[in-house]
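re: ur question from earlier - yeah i can do the single chain one, its not a big deal. heres the input i used so u can compare w yours
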Amino acid sequence: MSASRGLRAVALVIVLSTLLSGCWSAYYLGETNPTPAPSEMVGVWKHVESDGRQTQLELFADGTFDLKGLPSLGLDERGYDIVADWTALENASGTWEIHTYSYSTDLRLNSKTFSEQLMLIESDDIIRLAFVVSDPDLKARFLLERTAASGAPE
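and the output i got, formated as tokens:
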């Protein structure tokens, strides 16, 4: 086997391994992995449906949070799109912290009865919080956007 043929074979194995592993970017084109300071996260974050139903997450400067009205989240029968059950709402209070990795930045919410890891996504200079259902590569997300700094009028 010639050297160039051997290099092509190695390159092919690497490409196929990457494709078959199912590891795609968890971000859409134009989205980035933000790394905000904790002070930039403090405030009210909301998801509002067209009919007015909403989820609200308030992050406080002391590292605590209040979450109100989070629906039970799942995937549709195809396994790609979010389905929110607004008849089963969750409320929680606890602590929050940011974890930064080379591939993503996460916001961790913890309490005695609730633990969730939200992905931070930035596009068009706006940071959003995403409850990710299933594999992040599927991009099935329930997004919250910041509406006000903590203590500021909404």
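The helical segments are 3-21, 38-41. not sure if urs matches, ping me
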